[in-house]
């Protein structure tokens, strides 16, 4: 009888443990990597999904600093000196924020690192540069950053924002 009770208890725990392991985060970690000249560039971020929400001008308000992803602050690391748009970025690790607008975005490279995404301190800005914004025809469900062909690109919902990256 005790053995049957033990097996029953184990049988009840197995499905609960399996469900707990299968649950994925709403905004999973993601990474973009690329090379410009001799600089290896990595951007670590969390990738939120639309999940039926209005993104730009809704969840992400226009005209305000955005953590550019979810959860912890988005981290940019470069092993060499680069230029993002018209902003010189020395080798090192930084935090990336953006200010989305309907027609253009501003990319912010901030010297403070390791903070939660909403802990923005403008006094720590290395600098800012404009991004080009285009509307895309097929909505992107999950926020995505890429570093391809000498360009930093961010896509989400019906918006693509990009800026050139060159070696310095």
Descriptive notes:
The structure is a single chain. The chain is mainly beta and 168 residues long. The chain has one domain (26-167). The protein is 12% helix and 50% strand. Strands 1-2-3-6-7-8-9-4-5 form a nine-stranded antiparallel β-sheet, with no helix packed on it. The radius of gyration is 20 Å and the shape is globular. 26% of the residues are buried. The mean pLDDT is 90.
Could you give a short description of this structure?
This protein has 168 residues and is mainly beta. It is 12% helix and 50% strand. It has one domain (26-167).
Q: Number of helical segments?
A: 1
The Cα radius of gyration reads 20 Å
Strand content: over 45%
Strand elements, count: 9
When the domains are counted, the total is 1
**Helix-residue proportion:** 10-25%
- Based on secondary structure, the structural category is mainly beta
Shape: globular
The rounded distance between the terminal residues' Cα atoms is 75 Å
- What is the overall pLDDT average? 90
Largest sheet: 9 strands, antiparallel
Sequence stretches where pLDDT stays below 50 over 5 or more residues: none
Main β-sheet, spatial strand arrangement: 1-2-3-6-7-8-9-4-5
Order of secondary-structure elements: HEEEEEEEEE
Helix and strand arrangement:
Layout lengths: L1 H21 L6 E8 L2 E8 L27 E5 L3 E3 L2 E3 L2 E9 L3 E7 L14 E24 L2 E17 L1
Antiparallel strand pairs: 1-2, 2-3, 3-6, 4-5, 4-9, 6-7, 7-8, 8-9
What distinguishing features does this structure have?
168 residues, mainly beta, 9-stranded antiparallel beta sheet, globular
């Amino acid at each position: 009888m005790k053995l049957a009770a033990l097996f029953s208890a184990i049988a009840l725990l197995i499905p609960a443990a399996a469900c707990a392991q299968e649950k994925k985060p709403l905004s999973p970690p993601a990474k973009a990597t690329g090379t410009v000249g001799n600089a290896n560039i990595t951007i670590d971020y969390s990738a939120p999904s639309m999940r039926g929400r209005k993104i730009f001008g809704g969840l992400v308000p226009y005209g305000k600093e955005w953590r550019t992803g979810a959860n912890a602050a988005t981290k940019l690391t470069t092993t060499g000196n680069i230029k993002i748009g018209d902003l010189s970025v020395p080798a090192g690790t930084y935090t990336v924020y953006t200010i989305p607008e309907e027609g253009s975005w501003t990319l912010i490279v901030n010297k403070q690192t390791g903070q939660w995404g909403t802990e923005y301190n403008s006094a720590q800005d290395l600098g800012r540069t404009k991004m080009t914004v285009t509307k895309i025809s097929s909505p992107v469900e999950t926020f995505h950053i890429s570093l391809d062909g000498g360009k930093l690109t961010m896509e989400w919902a019906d918006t693509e924002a990009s800026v050139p990256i060159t070696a310095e």
